[in-house]
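Exercise: predict the fold of this chain.
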Amino acid sequence: KQWYQRRVAITAGGNGSSSANNFMSSSQQHQQQQNQPQNNNSSNQAEVIARVLQALPSNALSNTSQLANTIMLIQALSGNNSNSNNSMPQMNQQRMSAPPPQKSSLKPFIPRPDDVKYKVEIPDSLVGRVLGRLGATITEIQNTSGCEVKFSQRGEYVPGTQNRLLYVCGQQAGCKVAQQLILSKIEGDAGDVSSSDFVFEQIPNN
């Protein structure tokens, strides 16, 4: 009986040791499997770098621009540019969420007894150059010169033409500033329209 008990104890001890060894072995295998992707990734990147460097001419790295292009190529091939790609939607979202530029508010015009008034004919095709988008340009002209600048009603043309009248009213010095600004807007950035074709005519005060 004692011999049987001693043999059972030895057998149990042997099985426990084998189970512990099996557990340690499986844990090590699991850890190796976790580290394997990182090792594979590092080895893949190393292979890419080695291939790119071998393909370059001997003097390629002496040029700063070529060196920068090489680094960008290595990053692209090794997948290191994933962070920049992920940041692009965020940048686009920030641009889309940015508020649109607001038009400057029109300063109030206060008439004076010594104000003067001018008028000039503007072809209907050029009215938009003076008005600007949502009236931004004509508002800027008025705020800069301190004058009142306004067109005749839409569809109200000088008889026999497709020209609308543009009125400028204010102090003499301010009217001169407004006229120069208006002529520069009519000429445009390309200078395809001559400002000498437009003459401001003073309207007598009643």
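Check your answer against the key: The chain has six helices and four strands.
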